[in-house]
Amino acid sequence: MPLGYAVNGLFLGGFLFFSYRMIAARQVRGVLTAFVAQSLCLAASAFTLGASTMLWELLALGAVTFISKPILIPIVLTRLVPGGIYEIRELPRTVHPRLSLIAAVVLSVLAYLVTLPLVAVALGPTLGAANVVVGFAGLLLGGYQVTIRREAIPQLLGILAMENGAFLAGISIAPDFPLIAELAIAFDIPLLAFIVGLLTRAMHEQIGTTETSSLTSLREESIW
Predict the structure, then answer these.
(1) Which of 9, 43, 58, 144 has its CB 3.0 to 4.6 Å from that of 66, i.e. a possible disulfide?
(2) What average pLDDT does range 79-92 have in this prediction?
(3) Residue 100 domain-assigned?
(4) Is residue 216 part of a domain?
(5) Would residue 35 count as lying in a domain?
(6) Are 36 and 77 in contact (CB under 8 A)?
(7) pLDDT at res. 42
């Protein structure tokens, strides 16, 4: 168990670090790379908990997560979205990068203060107790990224990061969660990425940008 605590803590630290990296990234490619790394840490944490508790459900969930998020989603997004979008040097955002990181730290501290007393009562000193704290922080940080980004792909990755945070907490709260439900979620997420990728490609072809705020400038054209 002490080794399991140390290994799981290492992956949780990586998960939180790459959550910050997604917020600080200045290019779409950087956001996508950070999301892939975050998802790998999520899968590794599931593997660690499964191996330590001998629950095959967690091992299966880790394998499904490893296939669907770090592999399928980048393939879908890179194939559908024009390559020029990934080369934009500076992504537009609503908050200055330094203020964004300060806000991210504040949200992480808030998650710690809110969840730690609940975890102490509900789970106690178990191996996955820290997953709830870090998962809730990842949920808040993903939602924060959605609010500060203007491009469609970073906003989508922020939503998926929120799902990563919820999943990270869920594998410790309900480790024997039915596999069929997680398989359904695993197939829905690449499908969501496929749909948003198609819409982003259409936006780029029609109006030359993928900023979601530019959608308000579109008008229907009457055909006579």
Answers:
(1) 43
(2) 66
(3) yes
(4) no
(5) yes
(6) no
(7) 93
**Angstrom distance (rounded) from CA 128 to CA 45:** 9
Is residue 214 included in any domain, yes or no?
no
Asked if residue 57 lies in contact with residue 117, where contact means CB atoms within 8 angstroms, the answer is no
Q: Please give the Cα distance from 35 to 222 (Å, whole number).
A: 41
- Integer Cα distance of 178 and 144 in angstroms: 30
Task: Tell me how far apart the terminal alpha carbons of the chain are, to the nearest angstrom.
Answer: 73
93 is in which domain, residue-wise? Answer: 2-208
Q: How far is CA 169 from CA 26, 97, 128, 131, in A?
A: 28, 27, 8, 5
The number of domains in the chain is 1
Residues in Cβ contact with 214 at an 8 Å cutoff, skipping those fewer than 6 apart: 203, 207
In this model, does residue 223 exceed pLDDT 50?
Answer: no
CA 54 to chain centre: 26
Output the pTM of the full model.
0.80
- Considering all CA atoms of the chain, what is the largest pairwise distance in Å, rounded to the nearest integer? 73
**54-71: pLDDT as tens digits:** 777 788 888 888 888 888
The stretch 139-147 carries a mean pLDDT of 90
- 156 vs 85, higher pLDDT: 156
- Cα separation, 173 vs 165, in Å, equals 13
